[in-house]
# Entry
Amino acid sequence: MNHSYIRFSALLAAALGASACSGALASFSSGQIGCPSNEIVISDDQGGWGVREWTAQCRDRTYYCSAHGGGSHSSAQVSCRENSDSAATAAPGCTADVQCKGDRICRAGQCVDPVAAR
# Structure
């Protein structure tokens, strides 16, 4: 069995327990929502019977997350979905060049041709 999977399962099992800290939940949320764990604020953390739910907020967006599993014969699973209200109210446009297609770059929240940006 894959050792990283075993470590992840053990870490998730600890997070599913009553003493899970928001730092672990921020780490679990990070890859799901595409935000660094140090920028994520966890709230509404609740759970029981092998399931945990929490709210993760990052960059003016809200995500609802849940986790279950982690036993020796089950797979650990974390899932986060963005609140549709936060997506609708978030500022449109880009925040980084990688969000723009081709050679275009991000300037003032808009993808523009590099020549036009000069």
Remarks:
- The mean pLDDT is 75.
